[in-house]
Amino acid sequence: MKPIFAYLTILCLVAISCQIKLPEQVEDPSNRNRAKFEPADGEVILFAGQELEAVGGLEKYNDGYLDHFETPAGWTTYSNINPGEESFGRIQEGLDGLWETHDWGDNDYNAMMQIEDNDYKNMVLAIGLQFVNHEEKIADGTHDEYIDRLGDFLLSLGKRPVFLRIAYEFDGDPWNHYDLKSTVSAYKRIVDRLREKRVTNTAYVWQSTGFISNQEQLEAWYPGDEYVDWCGISFFNRWKEIEMFEFARKKGKPVFIAEASPTISDFNSKFTGNTKETQLGNPEQAKEAWEKWFSPFFKAIEENPDVVKAISYINCHWDSHPMWLNNPTFKRIDARLQLSPYVSKKWVEETSKAKYLKASPTLFDYLYGE
What pLDDT score was predicted for residue 216? Predict the structure, then answer.
């Protein structure tokens, strides 16, 4: 009986060991490989955005973030691959706002004007690239010429790090209404083609709205680990619903809070999408904004130091731009920090902490790991 008992014991031990799924155990985040341009845990790349007026630092645009605060590590701009689409009176040409000044309803954009300005020389660049209604043409190669021109633009920047947010807010239905299958294919084609052109100064960011998709839906939109350097989200009024921190942690990717601006849900926001009027030039509203938006924003950064590695504040006069006049989220928002001494003081106190990376002559080398 002893040999039989020993045999049964071994079978039991084998069965138990098979139930222990070691690959699913959470790994120590410090042991994972760093993503492209990812700083150390606890460090955050600070960006400001988004249009020329909001960022400032230029002769014509001289009342923006750069004119009132220490120069951040980077700035955000936007472009598109949707030639022929109409946007608030402008017919888009494709890659608008990269080489020339264009306004598609959200004030002026011109990335090259900023790149050539001395105030921007030590700053990294984040580009939001949208192609609503053109995802199929990108996926099937019809728009390859635009990808190639974008590649030439990126190559022209030399060593300057770029964060390319491809199809940002991909799950932002109804305003984006991207087709899932075609968008995933388009994302991959853009990355593959830029890699074929030997673009090496660009990290690829996969950005959701942050508040719409659950874990299963995010997985469905995900292009794959080999195509995503950073996960991204927007941080607006529905920040309590963000699931990207968990998703990114699961994938071993850092998170870029690529769009953030003070928006507070009103009483019926769940049904209407409306946010409360928030004018930072109004002292009472500015204090409420700090309590109900800025504090939770910085708390989210503080509580997720292993994944939140970059943030971009949108220093925008939202309600002065045609694009946002009827938008329930932004139609009553003026998020310019410089309008509020109270908010400005607290913003400087927080972002002056050593963990927030700013522009410097050594920043590029540091992000490259050199």
Answer: 97
